[in-house]
Amino acid sequence: ALHQHFRSILQSVPDAMVVINDAGIITAVSKAAETLFGYEADQLLGRNVSILMSPTDKSQHDGYISRYLRTGERQIIGIGRTVTARRSDGSLFPIDLKIGEAKIGDHYLFTAFMRDLTEQRRNETRMKALQ
Ligand code: HEM
After folding, report:
1. Strand (E) or helix (H) holding 103
2. Pocket of ligand 1 (CB under 6 A)
């Protein structure tokens, strides 16, 4: 019940947000995340978050999470990073990725905010061309 409530709140979050459990499985997405990646929520819930990545990171992401759970060393949590994301049609695009964590009992939840950097990159390219 609490979880349903949480999911409905996420529907109204204006940013692209994805929640995963400690096994990397998507447990909630915002409407903006569905739009950004070109999926319906049903196609994402229960899937590994690696569905949103390029093949390079896809095969390693479970390892990134387990390394973090083992060592507690943060590479992106609380720092952020520009990474390459993948839409449902297979196209790749740059995003600013921010990750937060919450401990619920003895499990972790990870929340990610993602911002599309496509437009920003395009502008940078235009600026360079003018110099
Ligand atoms: C770690 C890539 C999305 C949760 C990492 C690392 C990379 C990465 C490269 C390891 C960094 C390192 O060890 O140097 C990506 C890409 C994404 C993505 C390309 C594209 C969509 C997400 C999302 C979540 C998430 C949506 C959570 C909702 C984590 C966690 C870690 C991690 C928990 C380990 C903690 C840390 O390194 O601070 N990811 N990630 N990732 N990612 Fe992702």
Report:
1. strand 92-104
2. 18-20, 49, 52-53, 57, 61, 64-65, 68, 74-77, 83-85, 97, 99, 110-112
Using an 8 Å Cβ cutoff, are 50 and 1 in contact? no
Residue 105 Cα to ligand 1 midpoint, Å, equals 22
Q: What is the maximum alpha-carbon separation in the chain?
A: 57
Per-residue pLDDT of the chain (131 residues), as tens digits, is 667 787 788 888 889 999 999 999 999 999 999 999 999 999 999 999 999 999 999 999 999 999 999 999 999 999 999 999 999 999 999 999 999 999 989 899 999 999 999 999 999 999 999 88
Q: Residue 56 C-alpha to ligand 1 middle, in angstroms?
A: 12
Domain boundaries, the chain: 2-130
CATH of 2-130, one of 3.30.450.20, 3.40.1010.20, 3.90.1150.10, 3.50.50.60: 3.30.450.20
Distance, C-alpha 56 to centroid of its chain: 15
